[in-house]
Amino acid sequence: MKFEINAKDPKSRARAGELNTDHGTIQTPIFMPVGTAGTVKAVHTRELKEDIKAQIILGNTYHLYLRPGLEILQQAGGLHKFNGWDKPILTDSGGYQVFSLSGTRKIKEEGVTFKSHIDGSKHLFTPENVMDTQRKIGADIIMAFDECTPYPCDFKYARESMEMTHRWLQRCIDRVDSTDPLYGYNQELFPIVQGSTYKDLRMQSAEVIASKNRAGNAIGGLSVGEPAEKMYEMTEIVTNILPEEKPRYLMGVGTPANILESIALGVDMLDCVMPTRNARNGMLFTSEGIINIKNEKWKDDFSPIDPAIGGYVSTFYSKAYLRHLVRSQEILAAQIASIHNLTFYLWLVKEAREKIISGEFASWKNIMVEKVSRRL
Amino acid sequence: MKFEINAKDPKSRARAGELNTDHGTIQTPIFMPVGTAGTVKAVHTRELKEDIKAQIILGNTYHLYLRPGLEILQQAGGLHKFNGWDKPILTDSGGYQVFSLSGTRKIKEEGVTFKSHIDGSKHLFTPENVMDTQRKIGADIIMAFDECTPYPCDFKYARESMEMTHRWLQRCIDRVDSTDPLYGYNQELFPIVQGSTYKDLRMQSAEVIASKNRAGNAIGGLSVGEPAEKMYEMTEIVTNILPEEKPRYLMGVGTPANILESIALGVDMLDCVMPTRNARNGMLFTSEGIINIKNEKWKDDFSPIDPAIGGYVSTFYSKAYLRHLVRSQEILAAQIASIHNLTFYLWLVKEAREKIISGEFASWKNIMVEKVSRRL
């Protein structure tokens, strides 16, 4: 998995790059739509590719492991074959969902035991079996098994958790390096920096992660409730240490403004459920600002949702029509809003990339952050 | 609105025709997807046109009148402009929904008073204002305001109701003929035959409706719980009387087998919520038979849903993947199943048309009725 840097912004740490995978090249900075259970909610595979122009999507190991289960996924020949998405897939380690969705869970050095939120059945995730699981799902990029600490988190817990995450990482590496890809294409492991909101822990963790010399590196444990300033501060500390020549993935981030600010700090890859989850609640991100489409003011606005970003959905349907669908609780409302929001997110990172290449990113970013954050 | 008959099947009453509207030509026999609240549920306008290859869709006057309301629809320039569907639209009269959805309703000679199922507000539908409403919605084909009798229905009620429907029809005609189209294209009224399951009432009603000499004629009050044989018997009686040279629309029908049998009796147009409603419950109609996709047997069937009928959804997604989506209660499940079922219905009537033209309809129909009715 080769990463090439095409351009660096002169006035920020932003860079434009290309990450080559066996399922094609990803142009960075990139936003990765979240496909929890093998589907980006309310979006067809074709729409993801042709309308949204996604280049890589996420799968959630926790969800896919429980349903449809590894047996079905292996019989299908992996997730790409199962859902028809033939571009790169990144899977998380399942750790985050085990902590957030599973009612009862026990963290031990060996791993985490938890109960399924679907049927209450008991399961054990270890660094080793989570590597095997992600191989079976068929991810191009496999995430290390870590503990994502909550916010706030006391220093002692954050330090001990980080140290365990580092020990788990070595077990992940040992497992991945002693096993083979399952479906004929390369599967690369990305380790994850933890350390909560503690500067020294973040530095320490970034050093450890950098020393492992993997194909890419991730920053976890942010966007979990801390103030945005804290998140940027931690991200900057970490991107200063993580190697320049490897892609950097900031996990679970965020709003359009968060994304632009993180790119300015040297982040190359991001993911978040926000564009799809908020879409299902009638919240639209547009190139002009944020729209709550349920508001009365849109009832007779027959202009397209966001003509500036292009794409079928954003140029074809009017705000008034979408508002009507949302109020009528029509499924199509979720479809249109999800496709629109993802189209906007992908448009935004593409614009960012172009501005990095043309050397105008920093000033453009400051204007855009204000624009995309305002409420219309 | 000109109707041309291209071919007649030598061994049945089936015919292939073309109905010319100001929004394009409809090739008959045709199935019309139901777009209740201005959207065919879970289906994008583009998919309706390019994947499903729908030629005309329905809108429900009751739903559209209540939400978004006539003011918004008129400001939009009619339903075509509002939802982006630029082919023909037929609207029902709202009568059926007033009777089935509205809690309290009172039928009088003047019209029907009812309470909205959304907010309990009180409304009055009359033959006259329902014509105005359909003009405002912007239908190419406007349906007469009638009473759809339930099944079973005693003879006296059926007769009196039919007689009122005939009186209402004259009021509809007077109103339509004394008002102009609102959006620059022709809007034609179709009267509706009633008479429950009584042969003499059906004959009487068909004679009255035929005598009005409108651009097309409809058969209502069937597919409301009566045995299929009774429905075919009534349909046959009526199609024997309704003029040959006008399109015949059998309302609210039905299963794939019902559709083929009705075509054989001389029906040209049909609509039903079944393909979309059943899709949302995991029931698929295919060229090989009926599939309950929730069944265990499909869990590792990685073959496409129905490659024989063509189209993106039916050839791209596997049965196992769709089953997974249904079990995971993913919105995409409703989308895939709805598009598939509608693609199948449109494929079926297109096949029927081709068989009528090639003179093989009757024998093909008998084989297909068995095939599409079996449970896989």
From TrEMBL, chains A, B:
Keywords: Glycosyltransferase, Queuosine biosynthesis, Transferase, tRNA processing. Transmembrane segments: none annotated. It comes from the Bacteria. InterPro entries: ArchSynthase1/Queuine_TRR, TGT, TGT-like_sf, tRNA_ribo_trans-like. It is an enzyme of class 2 (transferase). Substrate binds at D92, S93, G94, G95, Y96, D146, Q194, G221. GO terms for cellular component: cytosol. One of its GO terms (molecular function) is tRNA-guanosine(34) queuine transglycosylase activity. Residues 13-371 form the tRNA-guanine(15) transglycosylase-like domain. Gene3D superfamilies: Queuine tRNA-ribosyltransferase-like (3.20.20.105). The active site is at D92, D271. Pfam families: TGT. Its EC number is 2.4.2.29. SUPFAM superfamilies: tRNA-guanine transglycosylase. One of its GO terms (biological process) is tRNA queuosine(34) biosynthetic process. It catalyses: 7-aminomethyl-7-carbaguanine + guanosine(34) in tRNA = 7-aminomethyl-7-carbaguanosine(34) in tRNA + guanine. Residues 252-258, 276-280 are annotated as: RNA binding. Pathway: tRNA modification; tRNA-queuosine biosynthesis. Belongs to the queuine tRNA-ribosyltransferase family. Homodimer. Within each dimer, one monomer is responsible for RNA recognition and catalysis, while the other monomer binds to the replacement base PreQ1. Catalyzes the base-exchange of a guanine (G) residue with the queuine precursor 7-aminomethyl-7-deazaguanine (PreQ1) at position 34 (anticodon wobble position) in tRNAs with GU(N) anticodons (tRNA-Asp, -Asn, -His and -Tyr). Catalysis occurs through a double-displacement mechanism. The nucleophile active site attacks the C1' of nucleotide 34 to detach the guanine base from the RNA, forming a covalent enzyme-RNA intermediate. The proton acceptor active site deprotonates the incoming PreQ1, allowing a nucleophilic attack on the C1' of the ribose to form the product. HAMAP family: Q_tRNA_Tgt. This is Queuine tRNA-ribosyltransferase.
